[in-house]
Design brief:
The chain has about 325 residues and is α+β, with helices and mostly antiparallel strands. It has helices spanning about 60-70, 90-95, 120-130, 160-170, 185-190, 210-225, and strands spanning about 5-10, 10, 20-25, 35-40, 50-55, 85, 140-145, 150-160, 175-180, 195-205, 240-250, 255-260, 270, 275-280, 285-290, 295-300, 305, 310-320. A hairpin with a 6-residue loop joins strand 14 and strand 15 (about 285-290). Helix 1 (about 60-70) packs across helix 6 and helix 4 (about 160-170) packs across helix 6 (about 210-225).
Amino acid sequence: MSEQKFIIDKKEFLPGQSGVVKLSVGNLPSDTKINILAHIFRAVTPGPTTLILAGVHGDEINGIEIVRRLLMHHRFNNIQAGNLIVIPLLNIYGFITFNRYVPDGKDVNRSFPGTSIGSLASRIARSLTKHILPLVDYIFDFHTGGDSRYNYPQIRYTRNDTRAFDLAKVFSPPFIIESGVISKSLRKTAKEMNIPMLIYEGGESVRLNNSVISQGYNGILRCLTYLGYIEEQNLMEANHKILLFKKTTWLRASFSGIFLWSQKSGAKIYKGEKLGSINDPNGQKSISVITKKDGYLIGHNNASVVNQGDALFHIGYDIDEIL
Ligand SMILES: [Zn+2]
């Protein structure tokens, strides 16, 4: 798309030009203006345009921190070809209220492609769909588990998208998960626009995790090297095998009470194995949580108290080992 003029919300960037675009998405009840900041980096040499995005869910701080570190370390300032659009924080409303959603309780990632006269979440989605996505060839979107759920570092991509799968292998997370698309998600809109998209999931909302941040930071730099943006001399090698999971399932609580896990994300598990227990506060009952599947724990719930039906362990299975 580099042959086209590079214009975002009426602001044109010429080859070699960088800067920041403020996308107005509304105002707080105090009349404080809310602007999403998009950092633009253009090389003189034509090449692909990549969107690096975080904070679609405002309380998923690991992703925001990965992108912040990349910006602070000036990793994008001397790209050799193409264009980067870097948005460290999409859902400003959620960020300032420590919340996944916008103030009306809607999820930005269930509001795509959005409308300019819809709910707050829909307006944020529309801004990205209208001003950014038409320019973009690749999307990297950084997330964590929702609520108290911890995700082992993993890339998710849309099944049968071979370009995304190739990039996922270059990113080299411990786990890669292929899946279908969820209605009204950014990934669904990206699929409809034929844009390969990787979602990096790591850690838990609100909390920072240095290992998760470091793996995401190095993964995106590997991909930017592969796509011809940068030349990296000192990239940390991924010193683990990569596992691809073609299917996933949640193991849910059959009982309510105090939840104690004994296996956690990243662990290999075997059918019949005890993964934890749920305990009543009076010390009368302790119910074992047993897996009915072989696989790996790709996520687990860190909640201390759970209700029946709550998601406890996210299990990945139907595994390919990628060398
Ligand atoms: Zn998220």
